[in-house]
Structures are given as structure tokens and as C-alpha cells.
Design goal:
Helix content is 38%, strand content 15%. It contains 6 helices and 7 strands; from the N terminus they run βββαβαβαβαβαα. Helix 4 runs parallel beside helix 5. The longest helix has 17 residues.
Amino acid sequence: MSTPPHDRNPTRLIIVCCHAIWLGGPSNGHDDAEWAIEPFQRGETPTIIEHIKAGLKELSEEPDSALAAANTYFAFPICPSTVTHDLHSTDSYQNLIFSLLRFRSLYQHYPTYITLVSYDFKRSRFLDLHVPAISWPLQRVRFVGIDPPESVSPRKGLENGERLRGYGVWKGDLYGAGEILREKRVGRGWREESV
């Protein structure tokens, strides 16, 4: 949505963090082939759909909320046209900061409360690193974490990967400006001049 409805002035922001790009297709996202995903994400697309549904559930239960999701999620069949879309995020920190900035640009104020929807194994990354990095009060954040089933992506493997390539890297580079995270962003199509 390019401009907010004039009769709305939300105070809460729900952020559904993007983990893949939906390409469209007849199964409405229930087939991995309809998603641009990394090889290690095979079988996880139902969980990504659950993230979208969780964000929509939060929105239905909190009428004073706005929902922000990646541009590719915005086109997903179950997303209402009132979802605010994020065109720029390439990582978890950017999901948070760009969604906040988008909210501010639409409503001329920051939200009083944020709900984050993502993988549960990323909970510490958001609550211990990203939220404090932007000086947002932790008591004004709720995290809804949904991991893939154990049979698809075992929790131990997710935690090890997060420790080595997620939390561990972000802990030493809170804003993603260092070489490792910058290269990851560029590999995902990040261009600073596009923001």
C-alpha cells in the first residue's frame, strides 16, 4: 500500500520476516518449486506460510495494528491489500529497521509496540541483538517463533547454523556493516542506492 487509509492510525507494528521469495503458482505456495529458496530450506515452505498466517492472526486480534511483510509476501494469496510491503530487506536486521521506517513514513509516528514473526531459533538474534541495536525497549516487543517440524529441519541443526552463521556473526557486527554480512546482503541483491 502506498498511502495508509485515512481512517487508520495504528499504534502497533507486526513484522513478518521474509525468509524466501514466493514466485507464484497453482499450489499457492504449498510446493517448494514456487519459492526461491536456498537448498537447506527445502521442505520449510509450509513453515513460511505459517509465519504469514501467524502475522495475519495477530493483525485480526489487534485492530490498532499494521502488518509489514516483504514485497513477495504481499502478493501471497492470503495477504490482504492492506499489508505494508517492504521492498528492501535482505536480512533480519533490515526486516526490523526498514519495517519501522516504513511504518513511520506512512503514519508519521513510530509504533508503541512491535510483534515480530520469524523462526523461533532466531529469537535470541532479534531480542538480544537487533532490538537493543536500535535502542528499542524490549518490554515493547513480542516475538512469535515458529520453526519447521523436527522431521524437516532438526532443531539441533538449526541452532548450530544460527550459532555459526547467524547470532554469532551478528554479535560481532550489530548493524551488518562488516564484510561477512555485507557480502551476504549483496549476494541477496542488496544495493544501498536503492533505499
